[in-house]
Amino acid sequence: MINPIKVNEHALISKHNLADIEVSMGMCVVNYHAGAMIDLGCVMRTEGDRKELSNSGPVLHIIPADSPLVEQEALKWLGSDDAMCGVIARAIVVPSNLAVLQDKIRWALFRPSVAFRIFRNPQVAKGWLIDVWYEELAREEAEKSRVSEEAKF
User: Fold this and answer.
1) Residue range of the domain that includes 137
2) pLDDT tens by residue, 6-15
3) HEC-encoded secondary structure of the chain
4) Are 40 and 73 in contact (CB under 8 A)?
5) Are 93 and 122 in contact (CB under 8 A)?
6) Tell me: the pLDDT tens digits for 63-109?
7) Which of 20, 36, 62, 129 could form a disulfide with 58 if both were Cys (CB 3.0 to 4.6 A apart)?
8) How many domains is the chain partitioned into structurally?
9) pTM of this prediction?
10) Alpha carbon separation from 50 to 1, 23, 73, 122 (Å, rounded)
11) Tell me, what CATH number does 82's domain have?
């Protein structure tokens, strides 16, 4: 359920039942509420709410340390092709080192090309998202320049 959207000078903020979603300077931050059970249904509903606000740019999900449940299937779905459609990169901050280790092993072996990672530290996650975003923008700019140069000939 979407509550009224608030706009301040820096961000578009939308408060929902499971999370607060903030879009600022092109990046979307999903802050799950304290005590929220992060299961597949929760992340699918929250992702639907996020797409209503913005479906471009990088996405940072922050799961609070007091979440009673962080389901592996929910994290896996957030990195799926369906969930990543239109998303440049996605990072998830989780309260468990075990989930981070499992993610690094899974993505290193099976899907290294997908811009999806799980972190323990929010600043490291945000830094990674900005790096991936910048690389994507630079790649797009280089492609535009190449096409422009080819059109001259």
Assistant:
1) 2-152
2) 555 667 888 8
3) CEEEEEECCCCEEEEECCEEEEEECCEEEEEECCCCEECHHHHHHHHHHHHHHCCCCCEEEECCCCCCEECHHHHHHHCCHHHHCCCCCEEEECCCHHHHHHHHHHHHHCCCCCCEEEECCHHHHHHHHHHHHHHHHHHHHHHHHHHHHHHHC
4) yes
5) yes
6) 998 888 888 889 889 988 889 988 999 999 988 766 666 766 666 65
7) 129
8) 1
9) 0.81
10) 11, 9, 19, 19
11) 3.30.750.24
Take residue 23 and report the two structure tokens written for it.
């879009």
Residue 129: which residues within 8 A CB-CB, separation 6 or more?
27, 58, 59, 60, 89, 90, 91
Structural tokens at position 17: 């039942």
Residue type, 153: F
Place of tokens 């993505």: 107
